[in-house]
Amino acid sequence: MQVILPTEQVREIQTMIMELLQHEIKHFKEDMGLESPYLNKAQACNYLGISNNTLDSWIQKGLPTIKIGKTVRFNKSEIDRWLCKEVML
Question: How does 66-84 read in b/e, with b if 16+ C-beta sit within 10 Å?
Answer without folding.
Answer: eeeeeeebbbbeebeebee
